[in-house]
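Project standup — Tuesday

K.O.: blocked on the structure for the chain from last sprint. Re-posting the sequence here as requested.
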Amino acid sequence: MNNLTYRFDLIRHLAWRDFVLRYKGSVLGILWSLLPPLAQLLVLVFLFGRVVPLNIEAYQAFVFCGLLPWIWFSTSLNSAGYLFVNNRDLLRRPNFPASTLVLTNILSNLLHFLVFLPILVLLLVFYDRGLDLGLVFLPLLIFIQLTLTIGLGLIVATLNVFYHDVQHMVSVAVMLVFYLTPVFYKVQIIPERFQLVYGLNPLAQLIQNYRRVFFYGMMPDWKELLVSGFMSIAVLGIGYWVYRRWLNDIYDTL
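H.V.: unblocked you, prediction finished:
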C-alpha cells in the first residue's frame, strides 16, 4: 500500500512539474499552450467553414469538441518516443519504474486538455449548444482515452529505445490518422463501404461521443463506448506486455 501511494504521489508530482516547467521562463507562460490549438482551430474553421464549407451549424464549437481530445492524444503519442531515451539518468535510479515516464507525459498533456475545457464551455454557451446531463459521463470518456493512450505510449516508448525510426513512423501515422478521425467533419458523410474503418478506430468512436455529450447534449452511445473500451483495454494489455517483455533490455541499452 505504501509503495502504491508513493507511486501515485511520484506520478502526480512529475506530471505537475512537467506541466509547469514547459513554460517556465517564457513571457506568455501557459498561454503558449493555448496558441497552437487555437491556431489550428482557426485554420480548420477557415478551410471548412469558408473555403470548402461543410455546412455544419456552429462549426467552431463542433470542431473544438473533437480537436481537444485529439490534441491530447496526438501530443502524448508524438512525445512518447524519446521518454526513455532522454531520461536515462532517471531510469538508472534504483526502484524507478520506467512506465512512470509514460504516465507522467500523458497526465501532463491531460492537464492541458482540462485547461481548455472552460474555453470550450464558453464557446458552447455562445452557440447555445450542449451542456446537458450527458456531461456527467465525461470522466468515463477521459478514462477510456487514458487507457488507450497509455497502451500506445508504452509501445512507442519501448520500441523507440531499440529502433529510433519508430518515433518518425509514429509522427507520420498520427498525421494520417487525423484525417481518418472525425475531428473536423461528421462521420455520417463517410460512404458506407468505409464505415468499418471508423468502427475499428477507437479514437474515432471516442471523439464522436465527446461531441455527443458536449455539442449535442446527448448521452454517450453505449455500444460505441463498449467497443472502444474493450479495444483500449486490449491495447493497454499489449502495451504492458511489450513493455515488460523488453524492460530489462531497455535498462541494458540505456
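K.O.: great, moving the ticket to review. The first helix runs from residue 2 to 21. The CA atoms of residues 205 and 224 lie 6 Å apart.
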